[in-house]
Amino acid sequence: MTINMGPQHPSTHGVLRLVVTLSGESVVKCVPDIGYLHTGIEKTAESKTYNQALTLTDRTDYLNPLINNLGFSLAVERLLGIEKQVPQKAQVTRVILTELQRISSHLVWLGTHAMDLGALSTFLYGMREREIILDIFEKCAGVRMMTSYIMPGGLYADLPSGFDTDVRNFLAIFKKRWPEYHTLLTNSELWFERTKGIGALTAQEAISYGVTGPILRASGVNYDVRKMFPYIGYETYDFEVPLGKTGDVYDRFMVRMLEVPQSIRIIEQALDKLPEGDWMIDDPKIAPPKKWQIATNMESLIHHFKLFTEGYKPPAGEIYSRVESARGELAYYLVSDGSNKPYRMHIRAPSFANLQSMPLMLEGKSNFADIVSAIGSIDIILGEVDR
Amino acid sequence: MTPTSDEPANPVQNEENTLKAERFPNVKRSEMRAADGTPTFIVPADELLEVLQYLRDEARFTMLEDVTAVDWKKEPRFQLVYNLLSLERASVIRIKVNLPGENPIVSSVTALFPGANWYEREVFDLFGITFTEHPDLRRIEMPDDWQGHPLRKDYPITGPRRPVMPANQFRPVGRSNS
User: Fold this and answer.
1) B91-99 and B63-71 strand pairing
2) Domain NADH-quinone oxidoreductase subunit D spans what residues (chain A) (predicted)?
3) Do B1 and A209 touch (CB under 8 A)?
4) Helix A88-116 and helix A249-272, axial crossing angle in degrees, nearest 10
């Protein structure tokens, strides 16, 4: 029997269609069909200046916009050759914000994954904590989700006053509540039933499919971009990369659950060394002038006008720049032809490769209900898959 | 595994000898500036499988991260870009294949890297490059009956049904002069 699951289905986390062939309860074949959220972001970026294209990156993976911003900004900075000049304050803030983003993304994953499998309350708790993080983002960027706060050269604006206290308050609350999350699911017999031994990928399979992030690490492969190709100073932070053994849904769950305390560790270290100073590179061709400069200085006004109408022109070349998003290795492939717009912007979306491995997890070894479990464990964002 | 050099932002180890000239005489270094410093090689289309097999099995670039393409508007028009990663050596390499604008065909690498399946479908869909011996070459992002390939440079950003107009002359969709 062939069943059409989705594209509109609450457990597919967006608009994903699965054509599932069943024999009784067991899955014989599972063919994902994507493209329902294809908005042509890569094409659109070719007609935008670099700073305009930044706002498109928010909309790919809408659960971790700041990490998308970071990936794009690092690519542009390396293309311009200015990555060494970015102020330390911006770099440390980037670490804090992207790790907060990772926590918030994992909270949504945990909530929806558990909800799909029938544990509704986890979702409510996850949203409660995520709200505090989004409030911090709102104070920084003015918006909760489509932030565009991290931009090439540094940050869009200075940190709001009390940022340090806000983050520390959040950590204090969160560290107290985090053990409660473990009591909800980690040792629950019902949770074991739905997750253990389901959707397993071996390390070999995962690597050959280009799977990255928590799914790859759950299969026991130690690949984290933050460790292997450190960026924004990750080599100076002390943290561990949790690894799984069997690569099943439960291991992916545990890997993400163990990643959250590591993110807290990183944030605490970063807060301790958050310096004062400038938040944006000191280069009028790249950084927008400050408001008081525009009001008092003719040259700044011209720079402001030139920057927002014409933008800057990175020298011709190409860059493939990786960051570790909440879902895996996120990479931006940019080609510059020396003009003010990217000649080509390609986004290597982690969910794309991760979703592709789904038939491998399911076919011939699982039941129909396990599909929901597997989708939740992949933590797909269809906005990123289709771009 | 962690690189210990002073410049950790640069994910490059010494890969100068990865593709030895005597073994693959037709493989050239790419002349384009690689801002990430990744060693980049241009491989003839008919040697692609051989080179990737060598890279996977002997140089241990076991993960194919990405397959994409660039439309250069001049001959050779299309350039396929393969990014490979070696997890064991924390090292990366980039392989490029130039293809003509007329009837671009290249062999699929799905036999070596099964994960290339969707990436090649995406390139087929958005650039119109055909991959021979691909197990399931269908459109992936666009509808199956779509005309044209959106990421080609001659495909209008406004879509296929509306003429390209300067930004100040846009009209509502229903009244376009199509």
Assistant:
1) unpaired
2) 116-387
3) no
4) 150
Q: Which residue of B has its CA nearest to A321?
A: B36
A residues 300-319 closer than 8 Å to B (CB)? 315-319
Q: Across the interface, which of B1, B141, B157 has its CB nearest the CB of A47?
A: B157
Give B21 or B105, the one with higher predicted confidence: B105
What's this model's pTM, rounded to 2 decimal places? 0.88
Q: How far is A48 from chain B (nearest CA, A)?
A: 11
* A47/B32 CB distance under 8 A: no
Is the model's pLDDT at A254 over the cut of 60? yes
Question: What whole-number distance in Å separates Cα of residue A195 and Cα of residue A182?
Answer: 15
Measure in Å the smallest separation between the Cα of B154 and chain A Cα atoms. Answer: 11
Residues of chain B with Cβ-Cβ distance to A353 below 8 Å are: 115, 118
Which residue in chain B is spatially nearest to A37 when comparing CA positions?
Answer: B141
Q: Report residue A333's pLDDT band, with 50, 70 and 90 as the boundaries.
A: very high
Q: Residue A74: which pLDDT band, with cuts at 50, 70 and 90?
A: very high
Chain B CB contacts of A348 under 8 Å are 65-66, 68, 83
For chain B, helix, strand, coil in percent to 5 are 15, 20, 60
Cα distance between residue A301 and residue A294, in whole Å: 5
At B8 the pLDDT is: 37
Q: What is the tens place of the pLDDT at every residue in B20-77? A: 656 777 788 888 888 888 888 888 888 888 888 888 888 888 899 899 999 998 888 8
Digit-coded pLDDT (tens) for A114-167:
888 888 888 899 899 899 999 999 998 888 888 889 999 889 888 888 899 999
Please give the pLDDT value at position B10.
Answer: 37
**CA A29, chain centre distance (Å):** 30
Query: Would you say residue B102 has pLDDT above 80?
Result: yes
Token reading at A122: 């986890």
Asked whether the predicted pLDDT for residue A72 surpasses 90, the reply is yes
Question: Taking a C-beta distance cutoff of 8 angstroms, is the pair A46, A57 a contact?
Answer: no
Contact between B32 and A348 using a beta-carbon 8 Å cutoff: no
Of B35, B115, B143, the CB nearest to A209: B115
Q: Is A186 within 8 Å of A257 (Cβ atoms)?
A: yes
ipTM: 0.87
**B150/A40 CB distance under 8 A:** yes
Contact A35 B140 (CB under 8 A): yes
The answer to whether the Cβ–Cβ distance between A320 and B87 falls below 8 Å is no
Tokens at A139, concatenated = 């104070």
By CB neighbour count within 10 A (0-12 exposed, 13-18 middle, 19+ buried), where does A296 fall? exposed
- Residue A261 gets the label, from left (phi > 0), alpha (psi -120 to 50) or beta, of alpha
Check CB contact under 8 Å for A229 and B157: no
